[in-house]
């Protein structure tokens, strides 16, 4: 064989190998039974500033392979942290596993609803992101210790307004008496 024929044969074989690998890989990624999905998520988590709250999420393996699965987190607000819940677990085919997750809120977190996303993290499945809502309840403001003494003082003294009115009336009375 000539050198040109060897080169063409090598290129043809290389192209066929690439086509086969890409075809097999795309078929594997699109296989519907190789899916890991959340089946149980909390609707909303209530938390107070400076406290921790725990909740459970459940993943189910709808596929035909064992998988080591952990929880992946993104878009977590700065005032929230994940304390526990990111350990990897073996998820059997057709089975479910529950992950307890604990979050912590900083003391200065703003009241309102905050959100972050979680997903399954495994080698057999694309990540499916789900949104978790966290409702931060505002703390009840406590009155300052001297607030009651200030109110008592206000009740004892008539205040500047009363003194000013009395002075104006006295001045009007005097000016009215001074006229002949």
From the 3D structure, determine the CATH topology of the largest domain. Immunoglobulin-like
* Helix/strand/pairing category: alpha+beta
Approximately how much beta-strand content do the residues carry?
25-35%
Number of helices: 3
Question: What is the domain total for the residues?
Answer: 2
Cα gyration radius (Å): 36 Å
Number of strands: 9
CATH class of the largest domain: Mainly Beta
Distance between the termini: 142 Å
CATH architecture of the largest domain: Sandwich
Shape type: elongated
- Order of adjacent strands in the largest pleated sheet: 2-9-8-4-6
Reported for the largest beta sheet, the result is: 5 strands, mixed
User: What is the average per-residue confidence, as pLDDT, rounded to a whole number?
Assistant: 79
Low-confidence stretches: 24-33, 149-154
How would you portray this structure in words?
With 180 residues, this protein is α+β, with helices and mostly antiparallel strands. The protein folds into 2 domains: 1-30; 36-136, Immunoglobulin-like. Helix content is 31%, strand content 34%. It contains 3 helices and 9 strands, in the order H-E-E-E-E-E-E-E-E-E-H-H. It has helices at 3-29, 147-156, 160-178; strands at 36-40, 45-47, 52-61, 67-74, 80-84, 89-91, 96-105, 112-121, 130-136. A hairpin with an 8-residue loop joins strand 8 and strand 9. The longest helix has 27 residues, at 3-29. It is elongated.
